[in-house]
Design goal:
Order of helices and strands: EEEEHEEEEEE
CATH architecture: Beta Barrel
Number of strands: 10
Helix content: under 10%
CATH topology: Elongation Factor Tu (Ef-tu), domain 3
Number of helices: 1
Radius of gyration: 20 Å
Shape: globular
Distance between the termini: 33 Å
CATH class: Mainly Beta
Strand content: over 45%
């Protein structure tokens, strides 16, 4: 039995984020993009049996991890202020997170290639917000940016879209 294109995605080739109305910015060392639908469900019981089940997908919970501390990506995820001073070899980039700021809405798209790298699968989460972000510095290891949050229906594309491409296609 042959596996049809897109049915056996492998790994995580690319993840990009963009502010709503902005341009995509690639994560240079994306490690994980996971997503789980948020389901609200209720069961109706009566007469010693299950009578009905209501189940509605309301949104999506997601997690993302990236090797390093990419200020341009973090700015899209949580907002803040990015500034630069000095000149090479003494340039300093500074990212400042102020209290009481509202995290912005953004789009995230991930791409996994097929086992033979000729086709791929994309997932797009259309309207997301960060609910948690962290960094850990530890001896003998690179700093990893980890964040998680939720996404909702953007009233145009839904909560999320999964697409299988017969010919591998870059995120655009």
């Amino acid at each position: 039995m042959t596996i049809a294109f897109g049915e056996a995605p492998f790994g995580l080739r690319d993840v990009q984020v963009k502010a709503i109305g902005g341009s995509f910015v690639a994560l240079n060392a994306a490690q994980v993009l996971s997503f789980v639908p948020i389901v609200t469900a209720e069961r109706l019981r009566g007469g010693d049996k299950l009578v009905a089940i209501a189940s509605i997908i309301e949104g999506v919970e997601w997690e993302l991890s990236e090797g390093g501390v990419p200020f341009d990506v973090i700015d899209i995820l949580i907002g803040g202020t990015l500034s630069s001073s000095g000149s090479t070899p003494n340039e300093v980039d500074t990212f400042t997170i102020d209290g009481a700021e509202t995290n912005p809405w953004f789009i995230v798209e991930g791409r996994a290639i097929s086992e033979d790298a000729t086709s791929d699968m994309h997932v797009t989460l259309w309207k997301c917000k960060v609910e948690s972000i962290s960094w850990r510095m530890e001896q003998g290891a690179f700093v990893i940016t980890e964040c998680s949050g939720a996404g909702i229906d953007d009233d145009t594309n839904g909560v999320l879209t999964m697409e299988q491409y017969e010919t591998a296609t870059a995120i655009s």
